[in-house]
Design a protein that fits this description.
The complex is a heterodimer of chains A (522) and B (856).
Chain A: H1 2-7, E1 11-12, H2 15-25, H3 29-38, E2 47-49, E3 55-57, E4 69-71, E5 91-93, E6 113-115, E7 135-137, E8 160-162, H4 174-181, E9 187-188, E10 191-192, H5 195-204, H6 206-238, H7 248-255, H8 258-263, H9 269-340, H10 344-429, H11 438-443, H12 447-521
Parallel strand pairs in A: 1-3, 2-4, 4-5, 5-6, 6-7, 7-8, 8-9
Antiparallel strand pairs in A: 9-10
Helix pairs in contact in A: 4-5, 7-12, 9-10, 10-12
Chain B: H1 2-9, H2 16-27, H3 33-59, H4 68-71, H5 75-94, H6 115-118, H7 132-142, E1 144-145, H8 161-167, E2 169-170, H9 172-185, E3 189-197, H10 199-202, H11 243-275, E4 287-294, E5 304-307, E6 312-315, E7 321-328, E8 333-336, E9 357-359, H12 374-390, H13 406-411, E10 417-422, E11 425-430, E12 439-446, E13 454-461, E14 468-474, E15 479-484, E16 492-497, E17 506-510, E18 519-525, E19 528-533, E20 540-547, E21 568-575, E22 587-593, E23 598-603, E24 614-618, E25 637-640, H14 646-649, H15 651-691, H16 706-729, H17 735-740, H18 749-795, H19 801-845
Parallel strand pairs in B: 1-2
Antiparallel strand pairs in B: 3-4, 3-7, 4-5, 5-6, 7-8, 8-9, 10-11, 11-12, 12-13, 13-14, 14-15, 15-16, 16-17, 17-18, 18-19, 19-20, 20-21, 21-22, 22-23, 23-24, 24-25
The chains are: A mainly alpha (522), B alpha+beta (856).
Chain lengths: 522, 856
């Protein structure tokens, strides 16, 4: 190609080139004639071949939305780009180009067959999202490092790999290394990796493979654990009681509270803190459990509602479909009769009868739909009422529990204040000189400072509690509102669709009849 | 007369007063002369029948009768007979009005035996007989029933079950004893009952009973499960109907229904009355014997009777059983003390209750009546245990073990066939392989009670090669239905037809899982065919074909029918939903109107829609022809789309769909032709199978499987031959020489030498003799030939042509013979020394002639 590169101007993918290619590769013979007459829409093209076109840059392919196979071989492409819109691609051929880096393939998650043969690639990389990859051709490139190929372990579906013509393939260990490290691979350089080679390879690379698998397993486990945690947290979040099943709230109270932390170091405060902490956690746990239970209840309610709704809609649909079915059967009979009979009066009679039938069908379908709307409206209202009841009950209980936390805080505050003042007196008398740290000494200067410090800590704590409560209440209310809105919106959407469908169908029937009449008269 | 009168009213009162009252009541009844005559007749038969019985005993010269237990009584048995005699004396003394008890009838050898010892509990090695119903069925089928004669008296004799099985017939007592033995052996708490029953029961007259096989199991009413009312279930739309009108309508309906029902009831009552048997003069007097099974063992939930003659079970309160005299099992004998005026309705079967039942031995395991007081119970238990030790134990049965061979078990009925008559039905049974076409049973249903007009015939088959299992013929509608078991090459399951000619009304069902095309059912009418499929990869489940009339065509003489197939007017195919395709593109119904060149497509309904997309294509005339431009007019494709999409409106799409549809149409047509051929083939096969029914024989059936039998016999023969051959081989070549010496145990050296020499010289002699013989023959032949030649030379001139030819023939033949003899002689000359040397060698090696074994 390089010789051509010097002599020929690079081409740009433009509309003419695409159109020519599409027409050339489109349907053949009679179908092709029709297609040409009609014009082919790029949107529906599923495979495209643009080889030997001297293309330098991949561009203007965004229209080919449903493309599954793309051949761009034997061009002078230097950089993979412009493929991000072709998400349905299964087959991509970029062989015999001048590509140096693998990139721009992130969006092609459905890709199964990728050919990068005869390019200038030196590292296998940037292919993390291609989890469906089955065939990979990387022959005649600049790959040098065997270690780099461990990257290919990611692709569990990979069956065929070709690497011949790379510097690394001259390595004696090349075949064994790959057989050992890619256990799912069936063909290497178009040759079956047989049991013998695999056995030898496993023996040879036993240790390194063990290491790798060990690491991989660990990573996998870690990932799974994280996912599990995330799932749990999501569930808690859905119940609006996240981070209430432990000391999070308590700890967050002290997180931004420097004075409080200092004060907790006072003698006698430790016990107080402990009891406060355990009580607070207990209440939080209560809130959490209650919240989870309520969440389950809400889910069950929603499930039941959806089920009933679906059932009603389904029944209604079936009735409607049955009516239409009946008419269709009658329709075909009438049409048959019409086509057979030549009597004008008889025809007119039949046609008027048919028109009546259509009108009747329209009426009955509309009645059915109205009826369904009435029915669903009723249950939606009921659902709304129930949901709001549930939400308010939940909020009330949570607020009550939160008030308990606040009481606890107040109680704690009083106790702390008492201890602090007692201590202050002692400090002022100089009895405690040895026992207190410098930090605390800073606070215990005079009464105001002490009280200020204690109240500041108290305020912070109350603020945290209030914030948490507010957050919960707001989220809960928003959820309730959104839910009802969504249900109503869906119902309206459904109703619109159905009416549209009915009218379209009736129009179609009438059109058909008109056409028929016209035809008869002609 | 008085006696009869008494008997007739006889119930087992214990109080004299009661009896008197009854008599007063009954004396009101006046017997008319007819009844008198009947009874006299019955009485006159009594003597005759006794003679019959005796003769029967004499005729039975059975092998088992030589067995001592049959001809004599053991000491214990004698004692038991004494006890029974004593009991009987007391009984007759206490209850002089009651009929004699059935205790000590004579057996087939004329020896008195106590009835309990006639029961021999046996468990036969057939799993079928482990349950009471199968046992009862077996007994009723295996034996032929002989009515009791006279019907009012107990039989004088009771045969052992072994001889009953041998002659395959018996009266109700024989039946019951056999069945009871089997049931006891299978672990049931079974008893023989001697008592009274209705005429129909005693004579095994089932003409008034509906055949049990005709009582079809009623389909359990399939109730639609009530949907649970959920919280958000929508309310049904309001019905705008007057409630009053509905009520009135309902009332009217109810009235009409009631009238109809009354009418029907009246009708059925009339019918029943007409079918009722005439009055029986001997009602309540007819002696019968049946089996009682008590609850408790083998998970029997409650007491019931089994009539051994028919093998049917009855509740203990059933009407046909009119009274019980006594019951017995292999352990004890009980006499009924209860009143049987109401039949067995009020009877209690708690045999431990001494008020209701009088026992003979109390040796049985039957517990005494349970007394609720616990303290007493303990005492009582102690007592019974003590008593039991002293009580007389029932001696073991005198009957030999009951043995039924597999072949007899399989053959069942005597001569392998049995006919049962029911109300409006006849049931015939045959043993397997008895009939050449594998027929094993036939149930014929009749329209009338006289059984003249057949309504329905049900034939069961077994072991048919064509897997035919059941054939039902409906004589009224002329419909035959054949059922097949799996395993046919064409997977046919059910075939319903009126005639075997093709292109008539029929319906075939198939084992769809065994067929490649998944065909489940094919219904045919003269011009229609419907096929139903199951589990196909292309989701096809229904195909309907309408045929047209055959166009007139000049028939090719003797040409096959395929030469002129029926034209297909219309093919309708329906498909199941293919979830992988969007509903708008998944075809639900495809109709090819072949005569109009039209194709209709209808898609599946999308989940949230009520309309379905459809297309109607008018095939352009030149579709499929190459190099001619096709004009696609708007009329080519008329469609309605639920969700209009650009893709479907394209001409290219229309064209491509048309092409695929045309292909599909051709395929469907081919399939229809294939179906037609298949039907014809099946019919031909069926006709052939019916004309020459063949039976399969299990490879495990050693009796019938000819091949395996032959093989086995051949094997036996081979073994036999092998044995003979070995015997011949062991023939000692030294024997004659040794015999000359008087067969000494061991030979001396001299003797050995002599034997050796003798043997060799004998061999030499024989070889020389043989050579001489051949030589002699050779010479004789040559001489004859020479003579002939001379004769020829002399008469050569005067010979006819035929003579000459004959001479030449003779010459060539003679030359051939001479040549053969010459060769043989030469060969013998060659071989003789070898043979001689071989013998010498053998002699030298013979262990008997070798040094170490010789006595010096």
């Amino acid at each position: 190609m390089s010789s051509l590169y010097d002599t020929m101007e690079p081409n740009v993918i433009d509309d003419d080139m695409l159109r020519n290619a599409v027409e050339e590769q489109g349907p053949k013979e009679e179908a092709g004639r029709i297609a040409k007459l009609e014009g082919i829409d790029f949107k529906h093209v599923s495979s495209l071949r643009l080889d030997f076109k001297n293309i330098l840059k991949i561009d203007n392919l965004w229209q080919f939305h449903s493309l599954t196979k793309l051949q761009l071989d034997n061009n002078i492409i230097e950089k993979i780009s412009g493929l991000d819109t072709l998400v349905h691609l299964v087959w991509l051929d970029l062989s015999f180009n001048n590509i140096e880096v693998i990139e721009g393939l992130k969006a092609l998650t459905k890709l199964e067959d990728l050919s990068l043969y005869n390019n200038r690639i030196s590292v296998v990389e940037n292919m993390d999202t291609l989890s469906n990859l089955q065939v990979l051709s990387l022959g005649n490139n600049n790959l040098t490092s065997l270690e780099n190929l461990i990257y290919l372990r990611k692709f569990k579906q990979l069956r065929t790999l070709s690497l011949a013509g790379n510097p690394l393939s001259e390595d004696d260990q090349y075949k064994l290394f790959i057989a050992a490290h890619l256990p799912n691979l069936a063909y290497l350089d178009f040759r079956l990796l047989n049991e013998n080679i695999r056995e030898m390879a496993t023996m040879k690379y036993q240790y390194s493979i063990d290491d790798i698998t060990h690491n991989e397993n660990q990573e996998k486990r870690k990932q799974e654990e994280e996912e599990q945690k995330q799932r749990e947290l999501d569930l808690h979040k859905a119940a609006y009681v996240e981070n209430l099943n432990g000391p999070f709230l308590f700890e967050s109270m002290y997180a931004d509270d420097a004075d409080g932390t200092k004060l907790s170091g006072l003698p006698g405060v430790a016990e107080l803190m402990d009891s406060y902490r355990s009580k607070c956690i207990e209440i939080c746990q209560n809130i959490f459990e209650y919240g989870m239970k309520q969440h389950e209840k809400r889910e069950a309610e929603a499930f039941e509602f959806n089920e009933c709704m679906q059932e009603a809609i389904r029944e209604n649909q079936e009735q409607g479909a049955k009516k239409i079915q009946e008419l269709t059967e009658k329709n075909s009979e009438i049409l048959n009769e019409l086509s057979q009979s030549g009597n004008q009066d008889f025809l007119d009679l039949k046609i008027s009868q048919y028109i009546d039938d259509i009108n009747k069908l329209l009426d009955s379908l509309m009645t059915l739909e109205l009826q369904l709307v009435d029915q669903t409206e009723e249950i939606i209202k009921e659902y709304e009422r129930n949901v709001s009841d549930m939400v308010s009950a939940f909020l009330e209980t949570v607020q009550g529990l939160m008030a308990q936390v606040r009481d606890l805080e107040n109680h704690h505050h009083e106790k702390l204040l008492e201890i602090s003042i007692n201590l202050l007196e002692k400090v002022l008398k100089g009895e405690m000189d040895d026992e207190i740290t410098d930090d605390i000494r800073m606070i215990f200067v005079d009464k105001d400072t002490v009280i200020n410090a204690v109240s500041a800590s108290h305020d912070i704590h109350l603020l945290k509690i209030d914030n948490r409560e507010d957050e919960l209440v707001t989220k809960m209310n928003t959820w309730a509102n959104n839910l009802i809105q969504k249900v109503q919106k869906d119902e309206i959407q459904r109703n619109r669709n159905r009416i549209l469908e009915i009218t379209t169908y009736i129009d179609h029937l009438r059109d058909e009849l008109d056409n028929l009449e016209l035809h008869e008269q002609m | 007369m008085e006696y009869l009168e008494d008997n007739k009213t006889e119930t087992f009162e214990e109080e004299d007063k009661e009896r008197e009252e009854d008599q007063v009541l009954d004396s009101d009844e006046v017997l008319d002369s007819n009844e008198l005559n009947d009874m006299q007749e019955c009485l006159s038969q009594t003597d005759l029948s006794n003679i019959d019985n005796n003769r029967a005993i004499q005729q039975l010269s059975l092998g088992s009768m030589e067995f001592p237990s049959y001809t004599t009584n053991s000491e214990k048995e004698e004692m038991l007979l004494g006890l029974a005699d004593n009991f009987w004396h007391q009984y007759t003394h206490l209850y002089p009005d009651r009929k004699p008890l059935f205790m000590c009838p004579r057996n087939e050898c004329g020896v008195e035996k106590f009835v309990c010892t006639t029961l021999h509990p046996t468990l036969l090695p057939y799993s079928d007989l482990y349950d009471w119903d199968q046992s009862a069925k077996f007994v009723s089928e295996y034996l032929t029933m002989e009515p009791l004669n006279p019907p009012l008296e107990l039989p004088r004799s009771l045969f052992s079950s072994t001889s009953v099985l041998q002659k395959q017939s018996g009266n109700c007592f024989d039946f019951s004893v056999l069945l009871c033995s089997l049931l006891l052996g299978a672990g049931y708490d079974a008893y023989c009952v001697s008592g009274y029953a209705t005429r129909e029961m005693c004579l095994m007259d089932e003409k008034r009973n509906i055949c049990p096989l005709l009582n079809k199991v009623e389909e359990s009413s399939w109730e639609i499960p009530q949907k649970p009312l959920k919280k958000y279930t929508v309310k049904p739309p309001r019905q705008l109907i007057s409630k009053f009108a509905v009520q009135q309508e309902a009332k009217k309906q109810a009235k009409m229904e009631e009238a109809l029902r009354n009418e029907q009831e009246e009708e059925t009552r009339l019918k029943e009355d007409a079918e009722k048997p005439g009055p029986d003069n001997l009602h309540g007097l007819r002696v019968h014997c049946w089996v009682l099974v008590l609850s408790g063992k083998r998970e029997v939930p409650e007491n019931f009777f089994i009539d051994a003659l028919t093998g049917k079970s009855y509740a203990t309160i059933s009407e046909p059983f009119l009274g019980v005299e006594s019951v017995w099992n292999h352990e004890d004998y009980w006499v009924n003390m209860q009143d049987c005026r109401n039949g067995c309705k009020d009877m209690k079967f708690d045999l431990g209750d001494p008020v209701c039942w009088e026992y003979l031995l109390q040796g049985g395991s039957k517990p005494l009546l349970l007394i609720p007081d616990e303290e007493d119970e303990e005492e009582l238990n102690g007592e019974t245990i003590q008593e039991n030790k002293t009580i007389f134990q029932m001696p073991p049965s005198w009957v030999l073990p009951i043995v039924i061979r597999p072949k007899e078990f399989e053959t069942r009925c005597p001569q392998g066939r049995k006919i049962l008559q029911y109300k409006k039905a006849k049931h015939e049974k045959w043993a397997p392989y008895l009939k050449r076409d594998g027929h094993v049973s036939r149930l014929t249903g009749y329209l009338d009670t006289e059984c003249t007009q057949e309504v329905k015939i049900q034939d069961c088959f077994q072991n048919r090669k064509d897997k035919l299992d059941l054939r039902e013929q409906n004589k009224i509608e002329q419909v035959t239905t054949e059922y097949f078991i799996p395993g046919r090459a064409d997977s046919l399951k059910v075939h319903e037809y009126r005639s075997l000619a093709p292109e008539t009304e029929r319906s075939m069902m198939f084992y769809s899982e065994a067929r490649l095309d998944g065909l489940q059912r094919r219904d045919e009418k003269p011009v229609e065919m419907t096929e139903i499929y199951q589990g196909r990869a292309d989701f096809l489940y229904y195909r309907h074909i309408v045929f047209g009339k055959r166009p007139k065509k000049v028939a090719i003489a003797g040409g096959p029918t395929e030469a002129n197939p029926r034209p297909i007017l219309k093919i309708t195919e329906r498909f199941n939903r293919n979830k992988e395709k969007p509903a708008n593109e998944d075809v639900a119904e495809r109709t090819f109107l072949l005569t109009e060149d039209r194709i209709q497509l209808r898609c599946h309904r999308k989940d949230d829609h009520i309309t379905t997309s459809y297309w109607e294509f008018l095939k352009p005339a030149n579709l499929g022809e190459k190099d001619t431009p096709i004009v696609l007019t708007p009329e080519t494709c008329i469609s309605y789309q639920v969700e209009p999409s650009e893709k479907f409106s394209k001409q290219l799409y229309v064209y491509e769909t048309l092409v695929t549809l045309q292909q599909a149409e051709q395929n469907s047509k081919d399939n229809v032709r294939k179906s037609e051929t298949e039907v014809r083939e099946i019919l031909a096969t069926r006709a052939q199978e019916e004309a020459d029914p063949q039976l399969t024989i299990s490879i495990y059936d050693t009796e019938r499987n000819e091949k395996s039998k032959e093989k086995r016999e051949a094997m036996e023969r081979a073994i036999q031959e092998e044995r003979q051959r070995r015997a011949v081989q062991e023939l000692d070549y030294l024997a004659p020489f040794l015999a000359q010496l008087g067969d000494p145990e061991k030979l001396t050296l001299w003797q050995a030498q002599k034997v050796k020499e003798d043997c060799l010289s004998d061999m030499k002699q024989r070889l020389i003799e043989k050579a001489n013989l051949i030589q002699a023959r050779f010479e004789k032949e040559t001489q004859e030939l020479q003579k002939k030649q001379q004769w020829y030379h002399q008469n050569q001139m005067s010979m006819s042509k035929e003579d000459e030819e004959a001479y030449l023939d003779y010459c060539s033949e003679a030359m051939f013979r001479i040549h053969i003899l010459e060769t043989r002689l030469n060969r013998h000359k060659d071989l003789a020394p070898q043979k001689y040397l071989a013998l010498e060698d053998r002699l030298n090696k013979d262990p008997r002639l070798r040094e170490p074994f010789l006595t010096s």
